[in-house]
Each structure stands twice: as C-alpha cells, then as structure tokens.
Write a structure and sequence with these properties.
206 residues; mainly alpha; Tetracycline Repressor, domain 2
Length: 206
C-alpha cells in the first residue's frame, strides 16, 4: 500500500523592507527595459519579474516614466563605475579608450539586454514626455565622465594637452553611440570599426 502524498508546503515569502523592495523593483526594471526598450517595456512585465502586483510598482515609483528615470540614473552610475574601474585597471586613459572603442566591446555594448542598449534607447528618448529630462541627464552624465577621463589622460601625458576635453568626450560618445547605424548599413565589418578606433586614438593622442 502506497503512502498518501504529503501535502506540499508553501514556501514562506520573504518580507522585504521598503528599501529592499524598491531595489528589487529597480533591478528587474533595468533588465526589462534593457531587453525591450522603454516604449515596449511595461510595468506589468516588471511586476511579473519581481513577483508583485502592478500597484506595488506604482506605490514605489509613481509612474512608468518615473521608474524609467530611476533606471537611467542607476545605469549611468553603473557605467561611470565600470569606466572608472577600467581606467584604474588598464593604467592609462588611452588604453581605456582603445578598449572602449574596440569592435568586440562595441558589439557587446549594443547587444540586446545590455546596459549599452538601454543607454542607446535613452539617447533616442530626449523628446519623450516624462522621460526627456532623465534621458538628457543620463547622456550628459556619461559625457561628463568621459571629459573627466580625458583630463586625467592629459595629466598622465597620454592625451593631447591641446584637446578640448568636452569636445573629445562627445566625439568618443558619438563613436560609441553610432555603431548600430554603421552595422545596419555595412554589417560584418570589424575592420572598419577597428580603423575608426585607430583614427580616433591617433587624433587625441600626443
């Protein structure tokens, strides 16, 4: 005689404090918007990934636009930390830029689901109601970071001393942002990306 099946036990749900709940929502929103973009991303998808109801999302962030703005602030901080860490690890700003502009890095940067894809989406939303200010702030934040890194490179002696750091920053940022445009027109050309990287580095190096 077989034993009667043991009733399944419900796994107790972990109760998060308000800050932990907000962080869990934000982490899920970063993933959703990176995968789908702002317009296709929905609050319901975020709620489903977290395991909460949509009203919980709205209680914490107020609106989809406010949630996306918080995501952009988080992603900007993450990108700043990654670039600064790369500069410290590689030892020079010129080496950092060589890595950032390399074909394999640009490909990863714009891969679906990446932070770079989310950032690129933000750059296209500077006229979107509710998120325009956050999108501009995110792009400007990365440009400011690159300006600071170029100044650091000038102090190190591996970036031209007569280079305007702000102009150089926007040049580098434009090179990074327009990679999908080049890939759409002439796909499968890592040699072109490598050549453009070399030209950029030659232009800003002593």
């Amino acid at each position: 005689m077989t034993d009667a099946p043991t009733p399944s036990r419900r796994v107790p749900r972990v109760r998060l404090n308000p800050q932990e709940r907000r962080e869990s929502i934000l982490a899920a929103a970063v993933e959703v918007f990176a995968e789908t973009g702002y317009r296709a991303g929905t609050v319901s998808k975020v709620a489903q990934r977290v395991g909460v109801s949509e009203p919980v999302i709205f209680q914490n962030f107020g609106s989809k636009a406010a949630l996306f703005a918080a995501v952009l602030d988080r992603v900007t901080s993450t990108i700043k930390a990654e670039f600064t860490g790369m500069a410290d690890r590689l030892g020079s700003v010129s080496d950092l830029l060589a890595e950032v502009l390399s074909p394999h890095h640009l490909e990863r940067l714009h891969a679906p689901g990446s932070l770079g894809a989310l950032f690129a989406d933000a750059a296209a939303l500077t006229s979107e109601p509710g998120v325009a200010d956050a999108a501009r702030r995110a792009v400007q934040g990365v440009a400011d970071l690159l300006s600071d890194l170029l100044r650091r490179g000038q102090a190190q002696g591996n970036i031209r001393s007569d280079l305007d750091p702000e102009s150089g920053a926007w040049w580098v940022l434009s090179m990074m942002a327009t990679r999908p445009f080049r890939a759409a027109i002439i796909p499968g050309r890592p040699d072109l990306e490598a050549g453009l990287a070399v030209l950029t580095l030659q232009a800003i190096s002593p």
